[in-house]
Amino acid sequence: MPILVTGATGTVGSSLVRQLVDAGEKVRALTRYPGAIGRKPPAGVEVVYGDLGKPETLVDPLTGVERMHLIAMNGYGVLSTAEQIVALAERAGVRRLTHLGHNDPSKDDEHPLEKPNRLVQQAIERSGLEWTHVYPGEFMANTLDWAESVKSGRRVRAPFGGWNSAMIHEADIAAVIMTALLEDGHAGATYWPTGPEPVRRRDAVRLIGEAIGAEVTFDELTPEQAREEWQSVYPDEVIEWFLDMGADPESNAHVAPDFEQVTGRRGRTFAQWAADHADDFR
Ligand SMILES: NC(=O)c1ccc[n+]([C@@H]2O[C@H](COP(=O)([O-])OP(=O)(O)OC[C@H]3O[C@@H](n4cnc5c(N)ncnc54)[C@H](OP(=O)(O)O)[C@@H]3O)[C@@H](O)[C@H]2O)c1
């Protein structure tokens, strides 16, 4: 039976698809744009159309599926259709579901940025599925936002050079999800995987430079300059959330044991991530 992977064209999902195929699993990859997949999926992957915002389009993709991975996002928004998706999944015979999302435990259920995430979480937990939530720390892949300026001018313009973040490689997030999909013992668990060590923003820039064999300059922006630069890129509440986090240099530095506990391995470092992605910055 195929495993249904939603978000299959994304950062984590494409790695999950590859790892599942390498493990010998049959994969059904969901996308809104089956005709326009940028990176070719591995041979044998069944690519199907479906829109998480239109649950009726998921009836066919869910047919014959017992295990699925759900990405609980839609751009910068969060799924508002989780309740219907979960009901459809149960009706189709899905038993096990992994959920990739975001959760800030320091905020309560009614916080405007957290409420939609908590509603997804609650819809999943109310189901009879064997669910596992995966709430990773910051993705190393977020630094791909710097790729164009590194390519064109060997510079990065960003605030908070001293901000320390236990960023995680997308392949390691996918590895946690894959373990929960394939192995027993993860039902009802919530994992908070991070990378193996925190990395300061200016060190991440230096490590990207080392990976491409060139010096990359870090131009530190003030929070005000960053707010201005980000205005055309992110919604206001997301900008304020970033600036809030950045104000405390250690707010994201905690290294959680979850990755090692679930996979039995040490997580990939930022230097490894930069080497894996060197071509994106050249
Ligand atoms: N970035 C971080 O630091 C961070 C930290 C913690 C948690 N997270 C969580 O990680 C998730 C993002 O993962 P990612 O970076 O791997 O994703 P991504 O690269 O941004 O890709 C988004 C994926 O979602 C799919 N998608 C979006 N809207 C859809 C819809 N309406 N119907 C069907 N598919 C839809 C896209 O598929 P198509 O376009 O092909 O349809 C694409 O595969 C979010 O839930 C976020 O909260 C991120």
Number of helices: 12
Gross CATH architecture of the largest domain: 3-Layer(aba) Sandwich
Helix content: 25-40%
Please tally the β strands and state the result: 13
N to C succession of SSEs: EHEEHEEEHEHEHEEHEEHEHHHHH
CATH class descriptor of the largest domain? Alpha Beta
Physical arrangement of strands within the biggest beta sheet: 3-2-1-4-7-8-11
Whole-number count of domains: 2
Overview in brief:
The chain is an alpha/beta fold and 282 residues long. The protein contains twelve helices and 13 strands.
Please give a structural write-up.
The chain contains 12 helices and 13 strands. The protein is an alpha/beta fold. The strands form 4 sheets. The protein has a 7-stranded parallel β-sheet with strand order 3-2-1-4-7-8-11, with helices on both faces. A two-stranded antiparallel sheet has the order 5-6. Helix 1 (11-22) packs across helix 6 (170-182) and helix 7 (201-212) crosses helix 11. It is globular, with a radius of gyration of 19 Å. The protein binds NADP nicotinamide-adenine-dinucleotide phosphate. InterPro entries: Ergot_Alk_Oxidoreductase, NAD(P)-bd_dom_sf, NmrA-like. Pfam families: NmrA. Residues 3-240 form the NmrA-like domain.
